[in-house]
Design goal:
Layout: H1 7-11, H2 16-26, E1 39-43, E2 46-49, E3 54-56, H3 72-84, H4 96-108
Antiparallel strand pairs: 1-2, 2-3
């Protein structure tokens, strides 16, 4: 049996301060963070850090601004999609949900002229 540390123990830190030090060593300074709070889990509008402290998530992120973290309908939709496939480039091999989304956005857009959508990042 090996006496070397397991990979899991090497990846485990118990405090925000530990994770911040590791982040400072591993990630370029250009990717800063406002608060050295490392999220362990989140639900709704709350997050819990690696030390077990609970916070109201005032920072949110693009994916959770409207519905919160781990909304059951979103979790179910993501799981359903992952059962089908995780990702393809819509410009190479398009998929039905992109077409349905474009149709819905076009329907909701104001005005009487013909509408078309484009998805870019």
């Amino acid at each position: 049996m090996s006496t070397a540390k397991s990979k899991v123990s090497e990846l485990t830190s118990s405090s925000n301060q530990d994770w911040q030090a590791r982040k400072d060593d591993a990630i370029a300074r250009g990717e800063g963070n406002i608060a050295p709070v490392y999220v362990e889990r989140a639900l709704g509008s709350e997050i819990w850090d690696v030390e077990g402290k609970r916070y109201i998530d005032f920072g949110t992120g693009i994916a959770v601004c409207s519905a919160g973290h781990s909304h059951p309908k979103i979790v179910a939709a993501v799981a359903e999609q992952l059962e089908r496939f995780s990702h393809t480039c819509v410009m190479v091999t398009p998929y039905d949900s992109a077409v349905r989304l474009a149709e819905k956005l076009n329907e909701l857009a104001p005005g009487t002229s013909k509408k078309k959508s484009i998805f870019v990042t």
